[in-house]
Amino acid sequence: MTINENIDITVQQTETASYIDKLVDQGKIAQKELEKQSDEDIDNVLHHLAKIFSTHCREWAEKELAVTRIGNADDKEHKLALVVNQVFKGLYGTKTYGRLGGTQRLIEYASPVGLIFAVVPLTNPIPNSLFKIMLSIKTRNAIIFSYPGKTGKLANEFIDLVQQVLTEHGLPVSLVQVCTPPSHDKTHMLMQHPGVDMILATGGRNLVHAAYSSGKPAFGVGPGNVPVYISRSAHIPKTAANIVNGKIYDNGIVCGSESNLIVHPASKNDLISALEANGAAILTSSEVEQAIQTLFNPETQYVSRENIGVCAASLAAKANISRAYPIKLLVIPAEIGRNDFLSNEKMAPILTLYTADEENGISLAYSLICNEGAGHTAVIHSEDPDEIHQFSTVMPAGRILVNTSATQGMLGETTELPVSFMQGSGTFGHNHSTDPIIWKHLVNIKRVAYGLH
C-alpha cells in the first residue's frame, strides 16, 4: 500500500467519524426537545404516523417487495397493518413518561433511555422500522437507523416521510435519522459511540453478537428455528391448518415461523393427509434429493440465498416437484443422523418432518432448538395439560405457543402476547430478557420509596 493510499484511508476514516459524531450530536439535542412535549403532543404524532401509513399500507408493501425480492406483498401489507393498528392502539394514551403510578409509599417514574441505535433486517425493513420509531417517539427517545445496503433508496424515502410528519408537529427531524450509506464500519462506530445509549439489533448472528459485545445495553434478535411437537392428542385438522398458515406467511421468512415438525407415530398418517389437504407437498425420497440439490447451498447447508422468501410453487418447479393441487408448502421427511443440516432454520416455505413418540418427542424438540434458535419460540399441539406442562418446563424458549401457528402466535395476533417485532431470547440465546420488546424496555423505571417508619 502506498503512502497516498494510506493518507486516503485516514481521511476517509476521519470523515466517517465526523459524520457519525454529527448524527449522534443531532440526535442527543433532538431527544431533549422531544422530552419537553406533552403526552397529548406525543400521541398526536403517533396518530399522524399511523394514519399516513395505514392509508398506504399496500403501496409500502409493494415497494418493500420490489426492493428486497423476498416474501409476498399481501403479508407485508398485513405486517405493516399490525403496526399501525395493534401497536399504535397499545401505545396511544399509555403513560410512558414521568409519574406512572404506584402507592403512597412506592411510586414509579419513567425516564427515556436517550439515543437509540437500531439495525433493521432485510426481511422486514418497513414494519420493523415503523415499530421501533413508534416505540422510541412514545418513550421520548431519539433513534438512528442502519439499513441493509440494497434498501438504501427505500429507507431514505421512508425516513423522509417520517421526518415530514415530525416537521409538521414542530419537532426536529433529527429525532429519526438514518446512517447512509450503510457500512460495517459505520455500524461498528455507532455501536461503540459513547453518545449512543441503547442498541436494538435485528439480524444475523454476527450482528447480534456485535451488539452484545459493544458494552451498551442491547436487545438483539437473531435466528429462530422453531420446533413444533404434535402430540397424539392434538386436533390434527386444526393443527395442520395452523402449521401451513404459519409457515407460508411472507413465504417463510419470519424468524419465529415453524421449522421442524415432530409428530407422534400414531398421528403421522393423519397429519400428512391433513397437511396435503391444506396444500403441502410431502416429498418422496427422490424428491428430497432433488430439493436438497436445487434449493440448498452445499457450502452453508442453508436454503440458498436466491431461494429465501420464494413461494413454494416456484421452489417446487425449480426442483421438478409437482402435485395435482397448487403447492403452498414443501415438507421434507427427515430422521436424525441423516442430512442433519435440514434441521437448521429454513427461511422459505420448507419444513422438515420428524417422527417420535412421547418419550422422545419432547427431547428431540429440545435438541433441535438447542442446536439453533435457543430462546426464541417453540410450539406444542396437544390437548393433554400434563404434556403441555412437561414441554413448557424443559423447553428453552421465550415463547411457548399452544395450539396455534408459530408466526401469528409469536407476533401476538392469535395469542395474548403483546404485538412486537422484536422477541427477546433470554440467557438461552445470550440475551438478558425473554420478553417481547415493548415500550417498557425503552425507558428507565425509577422507584420512589418512602420509609416505613
From TrEMBL:
Q: Which domain of life is it from?
A: Bacteria
Keyword DNA repair assigned: no
User: Pfam family of this protein, just one?
Assistant: Aldedh
Task: Cite the InterPro entries for this sequence.
Answer: Ald_DH/histidinol_DH (IPR016161), Ald_DH_C (IPR016163), Ald_DH_N (IPR016162), Aldehyde_DH_dom (IPR015590)
Q: Name one GO molecular function term.
A: oxidoreductase activity, acting on the aldehyde or oxo group of donors, NAD or NADP as acceptor
Q: Report domain Aldehyde dehydrogenase positions.
A: 13-408
Name the chain's protein. Answer: Putative Succinate-semialdehyde dehydrogenase (NAD(P)+)
Q: Does Oxidoreductase count among this protein's keywords?
A: yes
- Kindly state which keywords UniProt assigns to this record, in alphabetical order: Oxidoreductase
